Amino acid sequence: MRLLARCPDCGVIMRLSLEDADKRKRCKYCGRLFKVPALEQMQKALERIGQAQSGVYVDEKGNVYG
To answer: What is the pLDDT of residues 27-56, one digit of tens each?
Structure first.
């Protein structure tokens, strides 16, 4: 299984391995260093999005908007 991560700076989507969860990664295109959430955090976000009746945004700190 692979993870998809969007660079918070340039917006490029990268394919990552599960081992990259809960680590800092550098964008291959713009060079920005960003944190990939832990798998547990991603599961909580997916559950919240599934319960939403409208668009939901979850930031890198786990704050939910929408």
So the answer is: 999 999 999 888 888 777 777 767 766 666
Residue found by looking up tokens 């964008």 in the block = 27
Compute the half-sphere exposure of residue 1: CA atoms within 13 Å on the CB side of its CA: 5
- Parent domain of 9: 2-65
Q: Which residue has the tokens 């991603």?
A: 42
CA torsion sign for 23, 24, 27, 28 is negative
What is the chain's alpha carbon radius of gyration, rounded to the nearest angstrom? 12
Mean pLDDT, the chain, rounded, equals: 82
CATH code: domain of residue 59: 2.20.28
How many domains are there within the chain? 1
